[in-house]
Amino acid sequence: MATAEGAKKPVLEVVQAEGCDDSSVTFVLHDEDHTLGNALQYMIMKNPDVEFCGYSITHPSESKINFRIQTRGRIPSVEPFRRGLNELMTVCQHVLNTLEVSMKAYKEQHKQEAMDQL
């Protein structure tokens, strides 16, 4: 997404309150909505080192998510964020592969049925 000056707006911003350590961070994801927010929150909350994970959409007319992660202090918040994104990509790839295999099998089955009717 370009701004008025033509520069690209960042896709991800990291916001950290003054005086806080790496275990409590807010990630701002631009051009995203509940589709990514809910799935990513689910993946991150499976991590036992995460104490809190939540997201909010600031306003319905804005397409950005404020994504907050707080760990138990053993690891920085960026680690479960990165891991959650990677695990979500793995799950999505598995769903896509399964769909493609099923579609191929369905088409072959119906192709064979059509030929049998002739």
UniProtKB/TrEMBL annotation:
Q: Which residues cross the membrane?
A: none
Stretches assigned to the DNA-directed RNA polymerase RBP11-like dimerisation domain: 25-97
Its cellular-component GO annotations read: RNA polymerase I complex; RNA polymerase III complex
Q: Which HAMAP family match?
A: RNApol_arch_Rpo11 (MF_00261)
Matching entries from InterPro entries are given as:
RBP11-like, RBP11-like_dimer, RNA_pol_Rpb11_13-16kDa_CS, RNAP_AC19, Rpo11-like
Compartment annotation: Nucleus
What this protein is called in its record is DNA-directed RNA polymerases I and III subunit RPAC2
User: Molecular function terms in GO for this entry?
Assistant: DNA binding; DNA-directed RNA polymerase activity; protein dimerization activity
The species is Scyliorhinus torazame (Cloudy catshark)
Sorted keywords for this record are: DNA-directed RNA polymerase, Nucleus, Transcription
Q: Which family does it belong to?
A: Belongs to the archaeal Rpo11/eukaryotic RPB11/RPC19 RNA polymerase subunit family.
Q: Which domain of life is it from?
A: Eukaryota
GO BP, one annotated term: transcription by RNA polymerase III
